[in-house]
Amino acid sequence: MSLHVVLGHGPAGAATARLLADKGHSVRVITRSGRSPEPGIEHIALDATNSRRLTEAARGAVAIYHCAAPPYHRWASDWPPLASSVCAAAEATGAVLVMLGNLYGYGPVDGPLTEQLPLAATGPKGRVRAAVWEQARDLHEQGRIKAVEVRASDFFGPGVTDGGHLAARVMPRLLRGKPVSALGDPDAPHSWTYVPDVARALVEVAGEERAWGRAWHVPTEPALSVREMVNRLAAEAGTGPVEVRGLPSAVLGVASVFSPLLRELKEVRYQFDRPFVVDSSAYEAEFTVRATPLDEQIKATVDWWRERSATTG
Known about the structure:
Blueprint: E1 3-7, H1 11-22, E2 26-31, E3 41-45, H2 51-58, E4 63-66, H3 75-93, E5 96-101, H4 124-141, E6 146-151, E7 154-156, H5 171-175, E8 180-183, E9 192-194, H6 195-206, E10 215-217, H7 226-237, E11 244-247, H8 249-258, H9 260-264, H10 270-273, H11 281-286, H12 294-312
Parallel strand pairs: 1-2, 1-4, 2-3, 4-5, 5-6, 6-10, 7-9, 8-11
């Protein structure tokens, strides 16, 4: 089978690597620190901003899945050199560059988010994410690389921990029947993209030439508010009902003094203060991946967190 290279081993990168290995492909995962080998997966430690070393590691690959991201507070400074290095490796090797994107680049909009919206973000994180895709798209249009971007809403599901809004700040408390806090309006509709579906979409578009040269939204279940999601998770866990408290702006301002993550989230607070709904119909009209049914997502997530809690205490 073919060689596939995955950059990053966060929730999406890890899920993508496992999916490719399960399909019988040779998989090479690249991270700064490396990891112990897994069945069918080779782990290599290198700095992906070093385009020469990255190109060597990706030589012979049919696809490079760019699932890596700099630390959240360093996006503006660290994304550009990382993106340039990855594009250089794609050009040198001829591998399809499959980029995992998010929805920051659109900025605040009224109505559902579609791929036809302009990338009009005004904040630094949104602007840099837009620029990363625009660089790859321009190189694709010049015929120098083959590129496609798959955009997800907020990650949800097994493996999502510190970076998830329904993860480390919610699930341990929910499993104990304790109240949880939500950023913004806990009753605003919000789209949650299931991580296994992200992996399946990344792998599917890598092999579909008609997908290349543009961005696609990962198939995502209809939007539900934080409160509705917490209620479903608590019902599955048998710990509900659980109180859901909105985090007022004033409290967020004070908390952000002590929490770098909350401080950085101010830029995208709009995503939780009002409806934030992704439209994935364009993908669904062209390809085969569909969102995992929500009941299955909820059960798998609760099971994963229960197992994690049991092993970590």
